[in-house]
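Our preliminary data section would be incomplete without showing what the modeling component actually yields. Below, a chain of 569 amino acids is followed by its predicted structure, encoded as tokens that our downstream tools consume directly.
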Amino acid sequence: MKKLTLTIMLLMITTHPLFAGILRVPSEYSTIQGAIHAARNSDTVLVAEGTYFENINYRGKNIVVASNYIFTRNVQTIVNTVIDGSHFTNGDSASVAAFLNNEDSSAVLDGFTLTGGRGTRYQFGANIVQEGGGIILDSSRATIRNNIIINNSVVGVPPTNSGGGGGIATMYGQPRIYNNLIVSNKARYAAGMVLNWSGAYVKNNIIYHNIGGESYGAGGIMIWKVPANSAFVENNTIVGNISARDAGGISIALTGIGVPLVKNTLVWGNRQTIGGQVTMPGYVAYCDVEDYSSGSNFSLPPSFEEGSFLLQSNSACVDRGDTNTSCLDAPDPANPSSALFPSRGTRRNDVGAFGGSFAKVLPLLNVFDFYLSNTSPSIRCNVGAVGTIGVEFLNLSSTRVSVDSIVCGTSLFHVGANMHGRMLGPLENDTIIVSAIPVVAGSFRDTLRIYHTATGIQNPVRLPVSLTADPSVGVNLERALPNKYALNPNYPNPFNPSTRISYDVPSTNDISIKLFDMLGREIGTLVRGVHQPGKYSLRWDAQNCASGTYICRMQAGAFTQSTKLLLMR
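Predicted structure:
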């Protein structure tokens, strides 16, 4: 009887999750994949700090693969524990980490820097693509948390014809994706993350500085035809992503059977060639979106701290999220009515990655880059007239950048003084104003040299600029320049969906033109910066705005003028 009892106890010890094993890398296993092969369900593969040149595959095992971050809770452990997938042996399976065999939520990847991945070959019908540079999940419910997913690239090489999900790609399934930095990845669509027919819990991630979108758009995240009510994208910071097509921030595509919900999310400083930062913005709620403020959403500069995208205490995103109790920030034990850091203010949800009950401190970012909206400005005007063009300068660095000076080689082109010595915080922008007054007909070229303090990238940046002076209409310079400030009536008015706004500047001055709704709430800035004398015009595309009357206000020193714009759907 004693022998039988002992046998039963041994069976319980070896099969119960409480007695799951720990497999240590590299002290017991030289590679992470070797430890995964040896692991059984409920085991933990514990990885010491270091760099591991591997492409790992869970192979259906419900195990935890973790760095010592699970013990230290020191974000430097994440930085120091690197899985580098750049030394892959098979280009068809070059994701850094793969979950391809129906893993459940107890399959966990926790506390690593994942870099160098090139994606896994995947077939959607007749299309062969590369998916998931950093991580690929297929029909999986795995948990991805506390990782830095950085510098992975999925661009599509023969026989594949495209590539998506530079940071993460998930097909079907419903993974948990929490508290990750998804930064500086590239893909021909969904450079940051793509949910393909996949539900997911995507919470408290920073999705930043991902670049691509040449095939199907999306710089930040693409939600592609998800199952009904299964995608929960909440409390994320999606900023500074670039798409060569649409949706620099979030692309949403529906089939009618699914309604993805994006809530309490900050979408700011993303750029795209066409459209707004979010496609189908009607599916977002309680979000701060740079170009959309309908319903519970708002559009106000978020005020970030350097290096982390933490909200400053006076940020417009503090205490602006959903008031539902399920969205509350965690309480500060010392003051239960206040939020626990890194959340701010009261316990009402802070919009962005540092709000809600899942909020936690994430590693600092160290990215240096900026975005120019036009890399080869071209001016056309009549002889003797003032020709002007603006180039947006968006700081994509995680720290402040100073534009020390902008110079050109000849006296023909003039640069507004607004950018000289201008200090821009993370995701702040300004406009480089270039003007010319040709005195003779012809074509002229020069190079603007932009000197800046962003390290690790070209300095100065060289911007070729051209001027074409049309001899067909001679204009006397004095008659060509306006003699007073004016904000002219827009045309057409009423309009749908765009209208042109023109304005006159008689002398060099700092000009701002802003839009407000009828309640006096600012909804956007159309122009900000120093202008040379001249006549200007711009186009306002209101495709993401609701029908109604809007106020356009121009300010130049003490001069202020407003006009009403009527948008009719």
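Residues 44-321+335-339 form one domain. The first strand starts at residue 22 and ends at 25. Preliminary results of this kind motivate Aim 1 of the renewal.
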